[in-house]
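[worker-b] picked up task from shared queue
[worker-b] task type: protein-ligand structure
[worker-b] ligand name resolved to nicotinamide-adenine-dinucleotide; SMILES cross-checked against name lookup, match
[worker-b] sequence length check passed
[worker-b] input payload:
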Amino acid sequence: MPSPTPAPVALLLENIHPHAVELLGTAGYEVRTHAGAMDPTELTEALQGVRLLGIRSTTHVGDEVLAAAPDLLAVGAFCIGTNQVDLAAATERGIAVFNAPFSNTRSVVELAVAEIIALARRLTERDDLMHAGVWDKSAEGAHEVRGRTLGIVGYGNIGSQLSVVAEALGMRVVFYDTTEKLALGNARACASLGELLAEADTVTLHVDGRDGNAGMFGAAQFAAMRPRSLFLNLSRGFVVDYAALRRQVETGHIAGAAVDVFPSEPKSKGEPFDSELRGLRNVILTPHVAGSTAEAQQDIGRFTAGKLREYAAAGTTTLSVNLPTVTMDLRPGACRVAHLHHNVPGAMARVNQLLAEHLVNIEGQLLSTRGSVGYALTDVAGPLPTGFLDALAAVPETISTRVVSS
Ligand SMILES: NC(=O)c1ccc[n+]([C@@H]2O[C@H](COP(=O)([O-])OP(=O)(O)OC[C@H]3O[C@@H](n4cnc5c(N)ncnc54)[C@H](O)[C@@H]3O)[C@@H](O)[C@H]2O)c1
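[worker-b] inference finished, payload out:
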């Protein structure tokens, strides 16, 4: 009797949520888990025979690791950022990378809302006094947020959802984004950052981490804010000049601030933290936790594992961070060939010529390109003739090819 085919292996590091383990296990994977991150040497060893790798933000997956992992099909970054993965190398080696771009959006929005109210009521000051045994019942400096104008800089996933929740609290919302965005509810787009700063009495940053945003908010922008405004940054640490913010809080021009992200952050729990912003009244400092909730972790586990499973089972690359997007329903009984190639003229013509030469009829085909690569899913009436896959692999433009189902 032939021995049963061994289950494909998924390796999940850094305490990825049990939802991911369960989802991949149910899909037929042997799931190996490891509580911590791995260094390149450990990871290279552990990746032998592994089809799917799951990491969070600490494990670095460089080209040397990818080069030594011939069985690896896809990497799931069970977080938002993907800086820890060499994306160009993964693409060149035909390895898909996925992340969970929206799973913690709501968590960030809820913290921003909580902080806007806490700053407007100067809650942390009152809390500090109470813990020090001081009863200071007073309305001084305490405001409702209803009727205040919130200025959202960066109207992406987080900024636009915050817009909806803030309006539900009775705030007026204005926003500024470098690209054209649909204004939700009664929010109004500003033509420039300057226009937003002149109108808003609470300014919150939700821009992305592109290089051009380094230091985008400094002395000039704080000076342009309305007197006694509130300021929040839950986006990226390097976009704000915090020394300038400190000066403005000390003069009282900025009445309060909430900051979750810093240009240089401790690498792990327990390491000392320092910032120009320590020790200021009505300044809330949090250790990059805006997106860190149990709900977000659970959703990240489900979402990223789902993307890995779909890619492995159907070849679909929806929301991949490095491969072109191709989403095509898998018809029962179809034989699907996934082909990643260099995006040069004639590459697809050669693939289709090969199919014709092997008398294979195309039943469905979808191609998408992204920068230097093209990715095509081709459904054919199976089974594939002997020699076809070797011939496809030998096409000079081919990066990788596989039969997804047959
Ligand atoms: N603190 C946390 O725990 C945490 C959690 C999740 C996300 N984030 C960060 O929050 C930020 C927003 O996340 P997102 O998912 O909404 O991103 P997103 O990409 O959906 O939105 C970013 C928006 O900012 C706009 N933008 C970029 N530069 C700009 C500029 N200089 N001025 C105006 N608009 C600009 C973009 O056009 C885009 O619409 C990111 O930097 C992300 O890394 C932080």
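[worker-b] attaching auto-annotations
[worker-b] The longest helix spans residues 294-314.
[worker-b] releasing lock
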